Structure prediction request, 237 residues.
Amino acid sequence: EAAAMDPQQHAVLSVGYAAMSARGRVRSSLANEDVGTTLGMMNTDHARSVGRIPGPYDMTGNGAASAGARLSFTFALRGPCVAMDTACSSSLVATHVACRLIEHDECDDALSVGTNLILTWTGAFATFAVAGMLSTGGRCHTFDARADGYQRGEGTVALWNTSEAATLTHVGSSILHNGQSATARVDGIAVQQDGPSASLTAPNGTSQQRLLVAISWASARAVALEAHGTGTALGDP
Prediction:
């Protein structure tokens, strides 16, 4: 069964447990607890590479739903388990859902995980290239007139969300490499869709301004800004 699993499932389990451990939690203490899991995952490269002869574990070894369920199953977590694919915002939306689950008392704590691994040069990579989303120069020029597309990256990150002191414990690959964890407070988080725009993937400036206004009350406390840039002429005028 492990051999048939998408490597992203392995990453979700490994990094997810590291986030739990950073909070001083171990598998035995988590069993049957009201802990929710939310997963953001859009890449299906592994499923596309499965052989033509189906195997008994192909279904559970692939897909976001199985990856999210694998996390709850392995650690016997009984809280809500939600997997989502909202393209490149999947990880952030997963964290948003985790925060809302806690706010509405649907679970005591929630683990949100996001993963993306590039497993083949065909599939998603080829699709994005043909659609003109990838930079022909091999570089992402965010907030730059030279922007002609973006470059894909890999990573898996897990956040242990808790209502205790409104904190998040964040564990990522770079932090794990140093054997350290970091704690942050979520002052504001919101999600919405662009609605009508020039095309399905085109941004709507007015809608995105509304989203920023929804969390602007928290911006006065910010000391640093990390932004998502599309790396395109339309997204970075």
Remarks:
- The first helix runs from residue 7 to 22.
- The radius of gyration is 19 Å.
- The chain has two domains: 2-118+153-186, 120-147+190-237.
- The beta strands are 35-40, 81-84, 109-116, 155-162, 167-172, 182-185.
